[in-house]
Amino acid sequence: MQVGARKMVVLGTGGTIAGTASDGADNIGYKAGQVGVQQLLGAVPGLARVAGGELVAEQVAQLDSKDMDFGVWLRLAQRCQAHLADPQVQGIVITHGTDTLEETAWFLRLVLEASKPVVLTCAMRPATALAPDGPQNLLDAFAVAATPGARGVVAVAAGVLHGAAQVRKVHPYRVDAFDSGDAGPLGWVEEGRVRLARDWPDAAAVYPGALAWLAEPAAAWPRVEVVMSHAGASGRLVDLLVADGIDGLAVAATGNGTLHQDLEAALLRAQAAGVRVRVTSRCALGRVLPRPGDALVADEAGLGAVKLRVSLLLELLAARKG
Ligand code: SIN
């Protein structure tokens, strides 16, 4: 927290945390993104006390995060950037759907200078549930954002703090739906206090110029798709994507980056045609260990396919800008 900073910013994007169902016992038949962020905050006693100063809420979007798109990402990152530059702001909390939270977190990690905390939070139960998890998650996110020395893009859910690089949704129903894989959590939030397992993530943007490039009126995002290797895989989909003008492919390979021979042949054709191809493992844990002579570049960071796709988007964009 910056000395003297008195403002906490909350950016609403929708999700189950803002979802409503007609029956309090219904935890799956709800509509995400219905309750405004101001109303969400009003439902949690004690938030203002944790924030310790002015509370600023903005509705950046109101959607089910399965429908997340580049426009919302850009708007969200721009609002974060503007608030981070305000010396009065101590931290930012983002309410988000669980389904693509890890992709948004990774995108923000790549483009923001986050010397203050940017904390994503969410819920697995709608706001109307008999036992909604959103209010406690919000309170925990505020506790993280108000912690002296906190920085970087992080996520908090079910009392567990995750770094943007590691966080993954691993369960479609359980309230404790996120995991940080082999690395383990960044920490925990217990009764309003953060207990760190390791240091806060790096604050520096990986692509510092990216937001300015993306804000250019004619800017078009690169086209990157995810393909998966599996029993019976062919190269047909890859060939069709190349013919359609794809820029990049993030490949979820088997095991340690192995590929069905027919898919591999098509990926090598794609790469020879100028498509940027990156390979990760479809295994839930670990990372691909590259072998000498590999013709396709491996995801040694163990990001997994959806985050690798986000990295590739930024990598292509940076290459375009020279
Ligand atoms: C969403 O991702 O917006 C809906 C699902 C959820 O938040 O759990």
Automatic annotation (TrEMBL):
InterPro entries: AsnASE_II, Asp/glu_Ase-like_sf, Asparaginase/glutaminase-like, Asparaginase/glutaminase_AS1, Asparaginase/glutaminase_AS2, Asparaginase_C, L-asparaginase_C, L-asparaginase_N. One of its GO terms (molecular function) is asparaginase activity. Substrate binds at residues 65, 98-99. Belongs to the asparaginase 1 family. CDD domains: L-asparaginase_II (cd08964). This is L-asparaginase. Residues 223-293 form the Asparaginase/glutaminase C-terminal domain. It comes from the Bacteria. GO terms for biological process: asparagine metabolic process. The active site is at 16, 16 (o-isoaspartyl threonine intermediate), 98. PROSITE patterns: ASN_GLN_ASE_1 (PS00144), ASN_GLN_ASE_2 (PS00917), ASN_GLN_ASE_3 (PS51732). Residues 8-199 form the L-asparaginase N-terminal domain.
